[in-house]
Amino acid sequence: MSLTNTISATADQVKEKTAKAYSNPYIAGVGLGLVLLAAFLIMGRGLGASGAFTSVISTGLNTVIPEHAQSNAFFSEYISDGSVSPLKDWLVFEVIGVILGGFLSGALAGRLKRTVEKGPNISVKGRLTFAFIGGGLMGIGAKMARGCTSGQALTGGALLNVGSWAFMMMVFAGAYATAYFIRRQWL
Amino acid sequence: MNLPLFKYGFFNDNVSLIIAVIIGIGFGFALERAGFGNSRILAAQFYFRDMRVFKVMFTAIVTAMLGVFYFAWIGWVDLSLIYITPTYILPQVTGGLILGVGFVIGGYCPGTSLVSMSTGRIDGLMYVVGVFGGVFIFGEMFPLVESFYNSTPMGQITLPQLVNLPYGLLVFLVVLMAIGGFIGAEKVEKYFAAKDMEKVK
Question: pTM of the full predicted structure?
Answer without folding.
Answer: 0.92
